[in-house]
Amino acid sequence: MGGRLGSGIAARLPFGRVEGLLLAVALIWGVSYSVVKVAVAEVSVAQLLLLRFGLTFLLLLPALGVLVRQWRAAAAGGALLLGVNLLAIFACESWGVAQTSAANAAFLVSLCVAFTPLCEWWLLGERPGRHVLLAALVSVLGALLLAFAHGDGLRLPGIGDALMVLAACLRALMVCLTRRHGDRHGWPALTMTAVQMGVMAAGSATLMAGQFGTDWPALPVSRPFWAALAFLVLLCTLFAFFAQNYAASRTSASRVALLTGSEPLWGALVAVLWLGEPLSAQGWLGGALIVAAAWWVSRPGARRG
């Protein structure tokens, strides 16, 4: 019933609103890989996560007021589980991008488009349409071309690449769990985001304690770091997670994954233009395939396929 309700809502929305939000999220998250690369040059991954999600949680505290009026133990438990899953995603992504190129990290995480339709089928009982499966296969082909591309030829994946693939698996699970939670409990997207940020802040503090004990490092003072942190908090976290939580309850999980699957192309562009990372013709071909797949599922009439 939840799946049919979500599809019905999606059908009533003016075409392009949800798709536009998801493509904006893809652009912002694509830029974030280079921004994280800059930030982790000055602080540890655990400290960056704590600053990012702790500040976001403080900004979202007013959104928790709805819990007083709509408190349900099952809904709270589901939101906490989503927060734990998000912490695992960002730990994998942050450590992964610290050990591989920003462009490669963005490429590999896009493999979530291949995992999401299967996750959606398993968790939500919704068999993806043929056009979605075809687009997922095209995205996977593009991601593989990108993952093994280097400025001067082929490269073998490393530990950072493996962490990004694990993050892609967890992203697919996250999209489906968010959709199921929205169908069952109907909490506002901003409240869901606030709960998730609280869990992630607490988890990041635990990681900091495990790494540094009670002797936590001082905060950096450089302007580039704080500019990077502001971008991560305001756009990559506050806006992007609200938009994703909003969209996940109004369209299919597969479409969410595929539309945000244009993220690697933006990540590659920024990494090449800003960080000077090399990218071969094979890499650009892979990015073009991913963007083509995202366009295919967002075209008018795709919902019926």
TrEMBL record:
Limits of the EamA domain: 21-147, 159-298
Membrane-crossing residue ranges in chain numbering: 21-40, 46-68, 75-96, 102-124, 131-150, 156-177, 189-213, 225-244, 256-275, 281-298
Location of this chain's protein in the cell: Cell membrane
InterPro entries: Diverse_Substrate_Transporter, EamA_dom, EmrE-like
Entry GO CC: plasma membrane
Keywords assigned by UniProt, alphabetized: Cell membrane, Membrane, Transmembrane, Transmembrane helix
Pfam families: EamA
Membrane topology annotation: Multi-pass membrane protein
Predominant location category: membrane
Keyword Translocase: no
Keyword GTP-binding: no
Protein known as: DMT family transporter
Species, as recorded: Crenobacter intestini
Taxonomic lineage from the root: Bacteria, Pseudomonadati, Pseudomonadota, Betaproteobacteria, Neisseriales
